[in-house]
């Protein structure tokens, strides 16, 4: 380990560790890119790929992100952009959960959907994409639907859960599972020009409150559809919230729902009080 560290220290360019040096170190010392990156961050060395983070995210913060484990439930419209954002941010461990394959109607908005991935599992496309853009990140693909039955197994060891589901019933199961295991949850939903984002910490019930009058069905996404830009906006906000949870910084969207209207370009908040005073909101899906 000392030899690897000395090697890294000799490769610095303007105080940063170039990607080529990370690759060379992994090959020379027979270790993973993840091990190289973690060692560098533990010893105050900033990988050059994160240099544009460094005035916003410290080396200590970058290490926290790298050592975190974030689960993304759904790898479609929201999930693809969430995976992209987390990997580029430097989250070290990502669990990608989705039972589906890509279909042609996904091509208009899903980052991971291309003509070449049609018919292929979404989680494997997520794995390939992250390996392409940040091979130091470890992705665990799970081609299964999240539900109460497998929730504990999937959520074990997770720092944050990010909701990119298109089913309100499964979303409520995720919220209940996270509550039972004390895991923060970042909820996002979209439909047409509209979306919303909520961060729910253990002990809170904002997501359950939003959908308390829901009976069945996926929500209005089936009626409104989703253009290309809505998932990109909402997913980016979810990644920002997940980052803040991991780092313990900033004001989270706790007990408040950020409503997004891209048609009239309006953003507003609903602050949650007692259940009887809460806004019904749109029953959006991913």
Automatic annotation (TrEMBL):
Source domain of life: Bacteria
Location of the THIF-type NAD/FAD binding fold domain: 50-272
One Pfam family cited in the UniProt record for this chain: ThiF
Protein name: HesA/MoeB/ThiF family protein
